[in-house]
Structures are given as structure tokens and as C-alpha cells.
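Section 3.1: Structural characterization of target chains.
Under the original work plan, the team committed to producing a structural model for every single-chain target entering the pipeline before any wet-lab resources were allocated. The record below documents one such target. The sequence was received from the expression subgroup and is listed exactly as submitted; it comprises 188 residues.
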Amino acid sequence: MKKSILFIALAGASFFAVDATAQTTSKTKMDKTTGAEKKEGVLVGGAMMVPSKNIVANALGSSDHTTLVAAVKAAGLVETLMGPGPFTVFAPTNAAFEKLPAGTLEMLLLPENKAKLTAILTYHVVPGRLQAKDLKNGQKLKTVNGETLTVTRKGNMVMINGATVAIADVISSNGVTHVIDAVVLPTM
């Protein structure tokens, strides 16, 4: 398995805008009581993310989030993110981590850097259940680590501190995940 790099300065990284609604593939079924189509889940990293699973259980199925899952495990945050929440998670993909300087992930995974890794990961988590429709241009979101993220919204495109939401509204039993194309960093 190829190691990915995690959470260091993104100076010079280029970002592209993606319509968050265009990247979502969902599975639907008919609601027996209303006869209307009912959204069952969202396809992320080759796996169907379903509302009956918690954030961690859904992430474990995504081939696009293996680096994030490994980092969450190393930081000891699995039980927290499996808890009742609700949480809103901005989840960088493996490709986002690969843009970062070589050696970053390995450095953060060292036991002596667990506090730094935890601070970075909790910067991607906001208390509450915020769907894309709830995110407003210029809105400040207080993260679990105490710092804030800034929302930029242009039509259906949503960005968080410059990272584009590529897949919005991945609903889990204990919150919602938005897949982002870059990592975001607290002021450490």
C-alpha cells in the first residue's frame, strides 16, 4: 500500500472548482408510504455510504480515504467519531494528501507528534450536522480544535478554507461528511 502525505503547508497548490452537486452519485429506492424516491446513500471511493452507518464505518469502505482513516486511528479518534455526535467532517481524499511534502505523514504518525496530528484532524471536524444547504458564503465554523474554518460559496460550489467540496452531504447516523480535495491546516 502506498503511503500518503498528510497536512502541511499548501503553498503553491492549485485548486479547481467543482460543483458539489455534480459529483454525487446516489442510490434511491421507493418509499413504501409515499411512493416517492428516497435517497439511500452516496457512492464515495467505490463504496456506498449509507445513513445507517456512522461516519467511521462509512469511511472505512472508501478507497479514497485510506490515509484519513489511518491518521484517525493513529490519533486515537476512532471512538470519538463513532460516538453519537452529531459531527460535520470535511474529509480530504488520498489524492489531497499526495499533494503535500514528502515525509509529512510519517512525521505526524510518530508517537511524539500525536498531539499535532490530533489538532490537525480535529480542525476538519465541526460539532453539529451541517449539510451543504446550511453552509453560507463567509460563514465561520468553529472546529472541534477551537479554531475556525471559513466557507466560500459560489452557486452550488462550496469551499472550506480554499478546499473544494467535491462530494457533499454524505449522511451518516452520527453526522455528515463532505469530501474535500485538499487538506486544511490550523495555525499551529
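The radius of gyration is 16 Å.
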